[in-house]
Design a protein that fits this description.
Elements: E1 7-10, H1 25-36, E2 40-44, H2 49-59, E3 64-66, E4 71-74, E5 77-81, H3 86-99, E6 103-106, E7 111-113, H4 119-127, E8 134-135, E9 147-150, H5 158-163, E10 168-173, E11 176-180, H6 186-197, E12 204-208, H7 214-219, E13 222-225, H8 231-234, E14 239-240, H9 248-255
Parallel strand pairs: 1-2, 1-12, 2-3, 7-8, 12-13, 13-14
Antiparallel strand pairs: 3-4, 4-5, 6-7, 6-9, 9-11, 10-11
Helix pairs in contact: 1-9
């Protein structure tokens, strides 16, 4: 076990949780060992804080990077946010409605849909173990929105990228894309914590499995892709561990020398 303190960032879906949204016992035990050794543990997810809370409580982790970097909490205290401009969401909503693509708007405690029902929304939100959000198409006008989900087939997001060059579109599901405000990324979010805690990026480790983890990989000194990650993600990681369901977290921590 390394003696000097490190900071570690863990994606949730496909990294800590398997395809059944279960936390492998080996992962929970490995994180407990890291905490006992004095390392700083942070959840880094595309999820909203209200979707992170239960897992964070189970793991006794009170720091997280939510919404792919738009909402950062350090030891229970919010330290950084990067919400959308209302006018950007207004324009995005009009364009999506014209193309027949539903949206889901998220703040730190709730989410609402731009349509009463859509099978893509039901499938994708269901994969996160949540119900189809209630219909409230103007939700974004009365609260700060940190992330929007766009529901469309693969490659259909390209027309959005052309029309909205100031926004970021990151696919997380065959039928859904996360839309982020200008400058938004997991890398930007974790930089907020690394700076506040006095770490150097070389002292930071990141575990992930999807395209929204790539910028995080590029920022930290030690990146670990899960065995279930796409090849494009694995190629950009410094290390590749086993699948999440095959003790991927524990094996990855051994690979980088942080676990016996």
């Amino acid at each position: 076990m390394l003696k000097s303190k490190r900071i570690l960032f863990f994606d949730i879906d496909g990294t800590l949780l398997d395809e059944r949204k279960q936390l492998p016992p080996s992962a929970k035990e490995a994180l407990r060992c890291l905490q006992e050794a004095g390392h700083e543990l942070v959840l880094a997810s595309g999820r909203s804080p209200f979707m992170i809370a239960r897992l964070a409580e189970e793991l006794r982790i009170d720091s997280y990077v939510g919404f792919n970097g738009q909402y950062v909490v350090l030891r229970g205290k919010r330290v950084y946010t990067n919400p959308f401009r209302t006018e950007d969401l207004h324009d995005l909503s009009k364009f999506a409605a014209r193309l027949g693509h539903p949206l889901v708007y998220l703040n730190e405690s709730r989410m609402h849909s731009s349509v009463p029902y859509h099978p893509y929304v039901d499938e994708c939100i269901g994969s996160l173990q949540h119900k189809h959000p209630e219909y409230e198409p103007r939700f974004y006008e009365r609260t700060e929105i940190y992330q929007t989900m766009l529901f469309c087939a693969e490659r259909e997001e390209r027309q959005y990228e052309e029309v909205f060059p100031g926004l970021r579109f990151v696919r997380w599901h065959p039928r859904s894309v996360d839309v982020l405000p200008s400058g938004g990324s997991k890398a930007n979010g974790i930089a907020q914590l690394i700076g506040r805690l006095g770490f150097d990026p070389e002292q930071a480790y990141a575990f992930g499995d999807n395209l929204n983890d790539v910028e995080m990989f590029r920022y930290v000194g030690h990146s670990v892709a899960m065995g279930n990650a796409p090849d494009a993600v694995k190629r950009l990681a410094r290390y590749v561990t086993t699948d999440v369901g095959r003790d991927g977290i524990a094996n990855g921590l051994r690979l980088v020398g942080l676990l016996n």
